[in-house]
Design brief:
260 residues; four-stranded mixed sheet; 15% strand; binds hexanoyl-coenzyme A; Enoyl-CoA_hydra/iso; enoyl-CoA hydratase activity; ClpP/crotonase-like_dom_sf
C-alpha cells in the first residue's frame, strides 16, 4: 500500500499499521481534489492489504488540515457542483472497513474537522483546534460539519461552532467527546500508532464487526441497532478466532488470532 503520491506520504511505522501523512505544508494541508483522490487511493489500498490492520491519518504540527482548498473552490458554479456531485467523493473514506485513527495537531478546520470526524478515533495534541469556519466564507460545511459534529458534541455547541465559526481547543474537544483523549505535546502520532498496534493484535474479523456495530448506531433505532449488534455477535461464533480467544482465556494463555 506504499505508493508514490504528491500530496500525502504513506509509511508503515509498526507491524500492521499504515501511516498516512497529509503533505501540503505550504497550504496548511488544504484538501484539494488531487490530495483527496490520493487519500482515497491510499486508504483503499490499505483496506485491501491483508498485512494492514489499522490506518493512522495525520497532518503536520501546525495543521491537520485547514479545510477544503478555498482557492480551488472559489470559482465553482452551482451547475458544475450539482452535476459533478462536488466533493461527494470525500465520503469514500467512510466505506473503509479497517479502523482509521486521526492524530490531530494544530488546525482541523472546515473540511479538516470533517475529515477527522470521518475517522473512527480522534487523538488530539494539546495544540489541536477544531472548527467549522465555513460560515465566514458565506457557505456551510459539506462533509458532515452539521451532522457528525452535532452527534459528537450535541446541538448547542455544534450550533455555536457552525453559526459563529468559534474554534474549540483540545481540552474542550475532549470534554465534549469530539476526541477520545488529549496526549502530551509531540506524541500524538506515536500514540495513534500505539492504538493501531493494539488493534492489530486482535481478531481483525471482530475489529471490523465492532466498527460496523458502532457505526450502525448512528443510522438505526436502539431496537434495530441492538438487534444488528446481536446478529453480528452471533456471527462471530462462526470464526476460529472466537474459539481461540475463549479457549485461551480458559487456559490462562494469550490468544493467537489468525483472522479466520
Ligand atoms: C486554501 C489555504 C487554506 C484553505 C490556509 N491556506 N487554509 N489555502 N484553502 N482552506 C493557505 C493560506 O492561503 C496561505 O497561503 C497558507 O495556507 C498559510 O496560511 P495563513 O493564513 O497565512 O496562516 P495563518 O495566518 O497561520 O492562519 C491559519 C488559519 C487560516 C487560521 C488556519 O489559514 C485560515 O483561516 N484558513 C482557512 C480556514 C477555513 O476557512 N477553512 C474552511 C474551508 S471551507 P499563502 O499562499 O498565502 O502562503 C471547507 C468546506 C468543506 O473546508 C466542504 C467539504 C465537502
Amino acid at each position: 500500500s506504499i505508493g508514490s503520491y504528491e500530496n500525502i506520504l504513506v509509511s508503515q511505522p509498526a507491524s500492521g499499521v499504515t501511516l498516512i501523512t497529509l503533505n501540503r505544508p505550504k497550504a496548511l494541508n488544504a484538501l484539494n481534489s488531487a490530495l483527496f483522490r490520493e487519500l482515497n487511493d491510499a486508504t483503499e489500498a490499505a483496506d485491501a492489504d491483508p498485512s494492514v490492520s489499522a490506518i493512522v491519518l495525520t497532518g503536520s504540527e501546525k495543521a491537520f488540515a485547514a479545510g477544503a482548498d478555498i482557492k480551488e473552490m472559489k470559482d465553482v458554479e452551482y451547475a458544475h457542483a450539482y452535476k459533478t456531485n462536488f466533493l461527494g467523493h470525500w465520503t469514500k473514506l467512510t466505506t473503509i472497513k479497517k479502523p482509521i485513527i486521526a492524530a490531530v495537531s494544530g488546525f482541523a478546520l472546515g473540511g479538516g474537522c470533517e475529515l477527522a470526524m470521518m475517522c473512527d478515533i480522534i487523538l488530539a495534541a494539546p495544540t489541536a483546534q477544531f472548527g467549522q469556519p465555513e460560515i465566514n466564507l458565506g457557505v456551510i460545511p459539506g462533509a458532515g460539519g452539521t451532522q457528525r459534529l452535532t452527534k459528537a458534541v450535541g446541538k448547542s455547541v455544534a450550533m455555536e461552532m457552525n453559526l459563529t465559526g468559534r474554534f474549540i481547543g483540545a481540552d474542550e474537544a475532549a470534554q465534549r467527546g469530539l476526541v477520545s483523549r488529549v496526549v502530551t505535546e509531540g506524541s500524538v502520532v506515536d500514540e495513534a500508532v500505539k492504538v493501531g498496534s493494539i488493534i492489530a493484535k486482535k481478531s481483525q474479523i471482530a475489529i471490523q464487526a465492532a466498527k460496523e456495530g458502532v457505526n450502525a448506531s448512528f443510522e438505526l433505532s436502539l431496537q434495530e441497532g441492538t438487534r444488528f449488534e446481536r446478529r453480528l455477535f452471533h456471527s462471530l461464533f462462526a470464526t476460529k478466532d472466537q474459539k481461540e480467544g475463549m479457549a485461551a482465556f480458559a487456559e490462562k494463555r494469550k490468544p493467537s488470532f489468525k483472522n479466520e
